[in-house]
Write a structure and sequence with these properties.
Shape: globular
Strand content: 15-25%
Bound molecules: zinc ion
Structural class: alpha/beta
Oligomer: single chain
Amino acid sequence: MSDIQHQQEAPRYSVRYGQRTLSFYWTQADSKTSCKAVIHVHPNGEVEVQTPVGTPLIEAKQALLKRARWVTEHLDEIHERRRHVLTRDYVSGETLFYLGRRYVLKRVPSDDQRHVKLLRGQLQVTGPDLTRERVKGDLRAWYRQRAKEVFQRRLAHLVGQLHWLESRPDWRLLDMKTQWGSCSPKGVILLNPHLVKAPTECIDYVILHELCHLEEHNHSQRFYDLLRYAMPRWEVVKHRLDGMSEILLNE
Ligand SMILES: [Zn+2]
């Protein structure tokens, strides 16, 4: 998980690789224990080069060039996936996700007041004059409400497992285009309401990632030690979430 603030604050550079320009943002691992550069290709197509403190820029660029082939393959895959994501029409039969399960959207024209409910594998939007915009707005409100409840519950559960937290931190929902979560400098956790479409273990992973940032702000070795303590198989879960990102972030 890359946090929006890390991406915004980190300096950006680029290198030439054949006909392509690879741009990346550069972060530093402040732990003495890690001694080599790590390259991440994030689901939103951002490339991160993380090096130990004191590494000169030229070495960060060389590290990226060494893995350039792998990086470009990943970027091409992301690009390809994006091309396949269709714009939603919000008509009956479309697939929607909630807590990792698939539901079929069903528009139910009725004189009742508009409302949304889950029923037998369907996500039903009921009411008069169900235009695309209304259905979209109703679903959006429904997801936000569900996100509030689910995240609150998961946070309460997870905070109790982490010895560095004495109380539940402040958190709020924030719509983000490419990020699942973030942690403000004041220690407020921001969670993307779209995350409620993902399986619970993925929600837990994002929350735990941010809770670890309350103790260790950077993506240092110590941060990853905390994360591994909190969720030993976090990499598997992250991989699962990354694979779904495009489709879950597509409103
Ligand atoms: Zn982070």
